[in-house]
């Protein structure tokens, strides 16, 4: 069993751990901004294909005491890099963390790079090129408490970049956070889902992918592990075929999104087309004042602006009051979830929340507020 680590957004560790367990991960342990777990190569590929919440899946290949630059260099040289890297493959090094004597990430990365290429010169008489944009192998080094943790990044670019969303509006939610919000809401695919402030459509589209059992990794053109020396192309192709076979054609219940801005609705429609959901998830241009419940019951989930997207604070306060009025007057029988990063604006909704879940949107602490509408 290999030791892996999934990096996740702050505050999402517990729900990411649940997702990993459902995918078959063993020894799952939530940690700060991540989840440690164990599994084999098949699980590594499967998690990259199916996990909706993590950013990256790292394979931890070694840990060793590290007090200074000499310890770091020798620890890296002690690893047999021929198993992971040959001179015809490129690599890059990313460093985070620090110790008392190693507190500059660029120097740490350079020391690791030197140790690897020095071993290659000794063994092969040649060395791998460095490619910081699209390396065949991305080595990640983390220093903490006088120890070095060395991992290989199996994902490549961040998993939240699904690949279906080139068109985005102002302050879009990351796809991984949108998926987490939907899971935190407890929404089930048999319920209608509606986002009346959909922007470029991330929340409805992520819900659509979940409901149709579409693996988010199928949209990507490449994972980091595909250029590793031990890449099992046949195993990965089998997993992709299995994922394709699981796709459903019909949504169990409608998923809608609307927004007052025609341009961002066009973006949402374009993203729906890119994700193969154009005929399944419905988007329309509609001002919030004209929104009515499209069914007797369902789940409403939205991410209203809480920064400068509408202008002054008074504009936003009036907007939040209007949102609260629409929920009270038009959505009886529904459950609503509103993400907000501003407590004063949240109060302007004028409804008592049944539950508040802290969620970080980037570095901003927000609240996912639940409203039972009777």
From TrEMBL:
CDD domains in the record: THUMP_AdoMetMT
Pfam families in UniProt: RlmL_1st (PF22020), THUMP (PF02926), UPF0020 (PF01170)
Keywords attached to this entry: Methyltransferase, RNA-binding, Transferase
Annotated ranges, domain THUMP: 43-154
Gene3D superfamilies per UniProt: 3.30.2130.30, Vaccinia Virus protein VP39
InterPro entries: DNA_methylase_N6_adenine_CS, RlmKL-like_Mtase, RlmKL-like_Mtase_CS, RlmL_1st, SAM-dependent_MTases_sf, THUMP_dom
GO molecular function: RNA binding; rRNA (guanine-N2-)-methyltransferase activity; rRNA (guanine-N7-)-methyltransferase activity
PANTHER family xref list: RIBOSOMAL RNA LARGE SUBUNIT METHYLTRANSFERASE K/L, RIBOSOMAL RNA LARGE SUBUNIT METHYLTRANSFERASE K_L
Protein name, per record: N6-adenine-specific DNA methylase-like
């Amino acid at each position: 069993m290999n030791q892996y680590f999934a990096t996740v957004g702050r505050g999402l560790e517990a729900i990411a751990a649940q997702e990993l367990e459902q995918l078959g991960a063993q020894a799952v342990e939530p940690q700060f901004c991540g989840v440690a777990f164990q599994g084999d190569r098949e699980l590594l590929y499967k998690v990259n294909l199916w996990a909706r919440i993590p950013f990256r899946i790292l394979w931890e290949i070694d840990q060793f005491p590290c007090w200074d630059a000499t310890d770091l260099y020798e620890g890296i040289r002690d690893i047999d890099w021929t198993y992971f890297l040959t001179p015809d493959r490129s690599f890059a090094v990313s460093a985070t963390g620090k110790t008392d004597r190693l507190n500059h990430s660029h120097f740490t990365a350079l020391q690791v790079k030197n140790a690897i290429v020095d071993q290659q010169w000794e063994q092969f008489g040649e060395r791998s090129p460095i490619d910081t944009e699209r390396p065949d192998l991305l080595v990640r080094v983390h220093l903490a408490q006088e120890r070095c943790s060395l991992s290989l990044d199996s994902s490549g670019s961040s998993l939240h970049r699904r690949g279906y969303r080139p068109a985005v509006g102002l302050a879009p939610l990351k796809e991984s956070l949108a998926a987490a919000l939907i899971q935190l809401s407890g929404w089930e695919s048999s319920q209608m889902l509606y986002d009346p402030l959909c922007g470029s459509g991330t929340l409805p589209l992520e819900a659509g992918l979940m409901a149709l059992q579409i693996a988010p990794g199928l949209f990507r053109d490449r994972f980091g592990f595909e250029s590793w020396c031990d890449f099992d192309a046949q195993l990965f192709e089998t997993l992709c075929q299995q994922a394709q076979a699981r796709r459903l054609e019909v949504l169990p219940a409608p998923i809608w999104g609307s927004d007052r801005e025609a341009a961002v609705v066009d973006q949402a429609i374009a993203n729906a087309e890119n994700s193969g959901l154009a005929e399944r998830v419905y988007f329309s241009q509609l001002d919030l004042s004209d929104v009515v419940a499209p069914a007797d019951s369902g789940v409403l989930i939205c991410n209203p602006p809480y920064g400068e997207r509408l202008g002054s604070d008074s504009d936003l306060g009036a907007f939040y009051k209007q949102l609260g009025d629409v929920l009270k007057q038009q959505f009886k029988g529904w459950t609503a979830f509103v993400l907000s990063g501003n407590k004063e604006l949240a109060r302007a909704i004028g409804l008592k929340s049944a539950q508040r879940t802290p969620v970080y949107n980037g570095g901003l602490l927000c609240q996912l507020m639940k409203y039972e509408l009777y």
